[in-house]
Every structure is written in structure tokens, then in C-alpha cells.
Amino acid sequence: MESSISSLDLIVIIIYLLIVVLLGIWASKKTKSGDDLFLGGRTFTWGFIGLSLFASNISSTTIIGLTGAAYSSGIVQSVYEWISGIPLIIAAFIFVPLYLKAQITTIPEFLAKRYDRRSQVFFSAVTIITSILVETAGGLYAGAIVIKTFFPELIIWKTTIFIALFAGLYTAFGGLKAVVYTDSLQAIILIVGSSILTYILFDKIDFSIDKMVSSAPTGHFSIYRPIDDPILPWPGLFLGVPLLGFWYWSTNQYIVQRILGARNIKHARWGVLLGGFLKLIPLFIMVIPGAMAISVFTGIENPDMVYSTIVLKSLPSGLIGLVLAGLLSAIMSSVDSTLNSSSTLVIIDFIKPKFSSLSQKQILKYGRITTFILMTIAALWAPMIEKFGGIWIYLQQMYTIFVPPIVVLFLVGVFYKKGNPHGAYMTLILGTVLGITLFILQQLGYWKIHFTITAGIVVFISAILFVIFSNHKTPPTKEVIEKFTFNNSLLSVENINAKWYENYQLWSLILFIIIVLLFFILQ
Asked: Which helix (H) or strand (E) holds 507?
């Protein structure tokens, strides 16, 4: 496949990169403290939060991996995208007010307040490792593949280093403010570029839904698969997917960090719900185009090459540059978010507790140094992902090892008021060991249950462990229960005297109804 990059395409890409650099420089001038670096001074409004949530999640791993998965196995894995609205609704109702009232900088800090320091350290360490080796490295690898498609002479490991340096520089100096503002621009570019590509693909099949469905393999446009399906069996649809989604949207530092930087609870909630509505879009402009491409472009053997192949063979000059800018946006938005969040975890959860006398300028300095170190590690690991059989499979398999016990500590822990430090720590240890054991058995062929079902099983066992071990020790204090567990007052915060169209509960209901309808439509 020959590259068809024109001078116009290059101009579009260069303009985009220049805008990102200028935004990074502007943000760096306003980043003068650790709070600015890690939380943008807690000044973000709902629009920027929602767009940043979308862009940070719709990374290059999503575009390349999810589109490729849709081409090879159908739209079933789109569920990971549009079902995100449900955990985001849960976050808006419960976790947003809990987090913001606690005045935390990192999500592991919440575990320290709800349980103890042991849970904070364990969760933070696991998050740092997975963020760099899974999220950041995955984004770099996918980005390198995309760029190599257009410039075949490039070498993947060299390309990952270039991407890491570019994103790492403006992230280190501009902090979360640079991340959120560049993410907002990137979200718009992603939506516009992917929408144009989708329109052109539909034009190739004369805008015929019947033609699109009939030309694809049976079940290609259905989300319900048999229980032995290797991609996503129907029990996993209702067990593993929602639980993985809850971890990602409510407890994942690199996602929740922009919520922690909100101006107030109202802006945080509205930003979360905007992100939920935006997450419906990828089904139509990324997943369905990948699924219907099988009737337009046949014989693509490597799923990770599907999206770039569609771009090269479908778009005219200029538009290729716009879509490639969108892909670069996806790369930057995932890499900058994970680097910033990981450096935040290192400084706030490990460095600051040991050196409590650090000034804000020192925290800023060490935060930037940490960003560069983590950036280097991710760039060196990224080429290794090629050995895991595709980006999407790599990501999902890695998640199911450590997610279940974390889900229990948050989702069960805010309702089960007897949950205590001992129960939390034992659940983290034993739940993670169980997850690793089942993962190894699966790789050896002894455990043949799909990882989404496995995730549900481990969550259930972890919840039992949490209750059992908590009941053998003293319950938490009344102050901990009042501040860090659920109570009805959380639901009405920032919603009193709101007009009907400003009521977050109403829009949450609308979002929930749309998601339920998709379960019926995509049978």
C-alpha cells in the first residue's frame, strides 16, 4: 500500500502540531505550583472536563484497536465504549461528590482516608505500573503503527521515542492544564475527522444499511454472542464489561484526575455526563465504519492496520491530513494523560509523604522530572506490545488481573460501612493473587473461561473476602463512615433549586435510556 501524503496533508498536520505546542507553552506559563501541575489549579469547567474525558479515552489504541476488532470480529466490542455511560452515571451520583469533598489529588488518597496507607500504596503502585506499561506504552505503539503506515520507512521504536518526547515535553511543563486544553482541541478534531471518514464510507455503499449488513458475515452487527465466543460471550457482556468500565471511569487516576480539577461539584458532574454522551459517538464514527469496511476493503490481515488502510484508500488530499491529525491527537491525548497522572501518583502518594516539608516549587520540579523518567520507560516498553497479538487484546487481558479487588474496595466499600483497613488490604492481596493465578492458568490452557466472565467471578469472590475479613476486625470510626461512605445527601449536592434542564439526574436518566435502547437495537 503506497503512501498518498500530499503537501496539503503535511501542512494540516504541521498546523495542528504548532497549535499543540502553543497551548503547551501557554499552559506552562500558568503552571507555578504542584497543584497547578497536577490539578490545573482546580479551575476546570464542565465543557473542558467532558471533552478531555472523551479525548483521553479515545486514544490511538481505541481507534486502531477497536476499529480493527470491528473489522475482524464485528461490533461486539463496541460495548466497551457506549456502556461507559453507566459507570459515569454512578460516578456523577456518588463518587464525584465523595472525591471532591475529600479534597484529594489522587484516587489512592481516597483509599488512605477510607481505609489506610497500605491500600493507598498498593493501589497507587499497581496503577503506576499499568498506566505506563499498558496505557502509555499502548498509545505509543499504536501511534507508531499509524505513522509507519503513512511513512513506511520509519522504524517503530524510533517513532515511539519521538512521540513520547513531543507529548512528554508539553505535559511536563504545562501539567494538567496543558493536558485538558489540548485534549479539548483533540476531541473536536477526532470527532470531525472520524465523522468525515464515516460519511465517505457510507457513500461507498450508497448509504444503504441493508447493503452494509447483508454484505458482512452473520452476526457481524450483533453484540450478543454464544457463551463460548472467544471475543465477548454474552455473560461477559453483563458481568465483566460493566465492572471493567466502573474501574476505568470511577477509579482510574488518569481519567478521574481532570474531574478532581473541577471548579466545583456541579461542573464535575456535568463534565462527567457530557463525557457519557460523547462516548456514544465512537459506535457510529469508529466501530461501525470498521465493521462495514469488510464489504469495501477485503483481505486486510492485520486488524491493527484497518483504520489507516481505510484512510489511505478513501480520503482525498487534505482530508488525509485532517484524519492523521486526529490520530496524532489520539496519541497525544492518551500519552499526556497517563504521564501526568502517573507522575502525580509518584509525587503525591510516595515522595510527598516521606518529605512533608517539600515546597510547591520543589513538588513542581520533581513532578516534571518524574514525567520524563516515566516517559522514557514507556517508550522503551512500547515496541514489546507487538508480541501480544493486537492492542485491544493486550489491554483487556492486562486489566482483568488487578481490576476486580479494586472495584470491590470502591463500589462495595462505599456502601458496606463495616468495611475496614484489614478487609481492604487482604482483599487487595488475595484478589490480585487470584487474578494473576487465573490469568496464568488461562495462558496455559487450564482455565478456559473468558476473561470478562473471569473478572465477574473474581469480583464476587473478592467481595466475599472483603466482608469476611472486615468482620474480624474493628469497624471504621463514625467520622470515616460519615465522610467516605454513601449517604442520601450526596445525591442532592449542587442540584438544589436547579432548573429542569440543569438537573443532572434528568440527563442521567436520558443517557441511561439511550444505553438500554442500544442493547435492544444491536441484537
From this structure: helix 504-521
